[in-house]
Amino acid sequence: MEHEVFVPVPAERLREVLDDPARVARVVPGLQQDAGAEPVTGRLKIRVGSHSVTYRGAVRVSRRDDGAYAVEGEAEESRGSGSVELALRIGLREAEDGCTLTFDGTASADGRIKDLPADAVQGAVVRLLNRFAEHLAEAAPGTTTSVGTQDFEPRATTDYETTPDADDEAAPPPVAPDEAPSTAPDDEASAPAPVPEPPSAKRDEDAESIAEAAHARRTMIGRSAEEVDHAPPRGRYAPVPAPQTVTPPAPLRWAAPAAALAVASAIVAVRALRRRR
């Protein structure tokens, strides 16, 4: 395999990054480093078409006498029996306003990636090298470049793989809140929830009351509807009549005192006659 990438950074600045394994690990697209292991050790997920394959292994970068860098690596599939071996040479050639990175070497692989289309695998490798060159230029002292990581997972510092492969079994759907297991005590969980009265039952009761009132009005024979509407209530809700005061006629009011006076006068006259005798 042979590939070239131009970056607008001088070669000497790129060498400062390539000579430091810890900084090399940070510029490998999608590398998830294993905690406590060698710098360029961990998991690397690469997308090939609509598939993704995750490898776990290590890469060693060493500077050669001619100024180039030798890259050697071995990795195995994290979910499978496939493996890959890499022997790569990275050269730095001075160019106007920057440097040209040259990649040439060999790679052998088996397992899942072997069953994928060759052009898709080649495209994934080219994207990986392009991203590596861009990240390398970004990490160089005093330079910044715009880097896109849409084809690879973000860099991480732990050995935990955050996302599954595309060919892995789909995760179970999340449980809806109303289907989640209840944490209430057994006596509360076993008690049936009250069932609200349906609106239709309320409507039936209102209709029945109206029908009874209409029937009562129809059974009041001999009384008009107006009389029924304005009739006073009866039974326990009938009003209590006010007490009536009987007033005697006017002649009787004068006759009683006159009779009393006549009786008194007769008594006085009788007593006077008795004294004369």
* Rg from Cα: 55 Å
Approximate strand percentage: 15-25%
Helix content: 25-40%
Measured distance between first and last alpha carbons? 177 Å
Provide the CATH topology of the domain at 2-139.
Answer: Alpha-D-Glucose-1,6-Bisphosphate, Chain A, domain 4
Low-pLDDT stretches: 147-172, 180-190
Give the name of the CATH superfamily of the domain at 2-139: START domain
Q: What would the average pLDDT be, to the nearest integer?
A: 75
What's the total number of strands? 7
Number of helices, counting only DSSP H or I runs of 4 residues or more:
7
CATH architecture of the domain at 2-139: 2-Layer Sandwich
CATH secondary-structure class of the domain at 2-139: Alpha Beta
Indicate the overall shape.
rod-shaped
Give the strand order, joined by hyphens, for the main sheet. 1-7-6-5-4-3-2
How would you sum up the major sheet? 7 strands, antiparallel
Helix-strand makeup class: alpha+beta
The string of secondary-structure elements, in order, is EHHEEEEEEHHHHH
Short overview:
The chain has 277 residues and is of the alpha+beta class.
Report on this structure.
With about 280 residues, this protein is an alpha+beta fold. It has helices spanning about 10-20, 20-25, 120-140, 185-190, 200-220, 225-230, 250-275; strands at about 1-5, 30-35, 40-50, 50-65, 70-75, 85-95, 100-110. The chain is built from seven helices and seven strands, in the order βααββββββααααα. Strands 1-7-6-5-4-3-2 form a seven-stranded antiparallel beta sheet, with helices on one face. β4 (about 50-65) and β5 (about 70-75) form a beta hairpin. α2 crosses α3. The protein starts with a strand and ends with a helix. Mean pLDDT is about 75; it is low at about 145-170 and about 180-190.
